[in-house]
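Many introductory courses stop at the sequence. We go one step further.
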Amino acid sequence: MPWSNASPEMEQIRFIQRWERGGESFLELCRAFSISPKTGYKRVHRFQIWGWDGLGDLSRAPHQHPNQTERPVVERLVMARQEHPTWGPKKLIAWLRGQEPLVPWPAPSTAGDLLDRAGLVNRRKRRRRTPPWSQPFVQAEQPNDLWCIDFKGWFRTGNGVRVNPLTVEDASSRYLLVCHGLHQPRGSQVRPVLERAFREYGLPRVIRSDNGPPFASVGLGGLSSLSVWWIKLGILPERIEPGHPEQNGRLERLHRTLKAETASPPRTTWQRQQRAFQDFRSSYNEERPHEALGQQPPARHYQPSACMYPRRVDSPEYEAGTTVRRVRTNGEIKWNGGRVYLSEALCGEPVGLMPQDDRYWTIHFGPLQIGLLDSYANNTLHTPTLVLPMSPVYL
């Protein structure tokens, strides 16, 4: 039987107040409020159990349903999120299934809802992104076909020391080969770090970088001393188009995670920051599931290169019929009784020259054609860097 007042909850409060005062029979009290004794006893019973909170209409939703996630599972999911605050539901569920395969873990969508209810989801504003560059690069079909190298933006530790995080990732397996902080982004500091990586993992076929120092320069062929060293090792330097960091997008995404886990906030000292990089690299390679790898960690897909780092690094050799000149310490070569400037990055290295016609000669360094020499004007012309057809990189 319905309550007569437009506000049933207020009527129920008045009903309980009169019931507590007494002085009238329960049947008379129910008639005064136009309800049946059954309804009256129900309200009194709820008041005795829950107090004033028991008044009003309670939810009719079932307290349990067959698909409800068990509480211990939810608690373990929340704990995993707190251990890995940058991992999304897909990675967390894949990781938990690997750790505890017998537990009935929920679907990633359900896990996302559970984390949201627990207040552990930070929503980001959607950003418009530039479409990927369609120019074909070297395809990374196997580990060590292509390594991607870049610096994440620099920052300072808590005690004011500058840190420039250098990262190198295998494009095929997503294995993070290098994650190391440098004081300055210079070739002299990058080279020892790469030497250690080459000795441990062997040599890749190609290294992709941006167009900035120390990986490239504005000189002939865009070569820097670092990329000259790569070519001598048999590694082809590959540069993305200026202003298009998405062409090295694997590292762009990696750097966002790296910043969240190691530099927000930065560690108090240089040594602690380096340990944070090491811990991140270990977790990224051994534990963190990667969606592009079927939610498996990169370590399951990477293997070192069969091409070992040599004990001796030799300069390129050229086929018969090629005119060879050695670049002097000032970046020049002797030509037709004069001198022609090429690049200081090539100091001490032999370059090959092949006649194109009576006037122009193509300039080669190893497998790369890096420019033209104008024999009439005794100067060089910058041209797009080309890989020679018989380069061992493409055999």
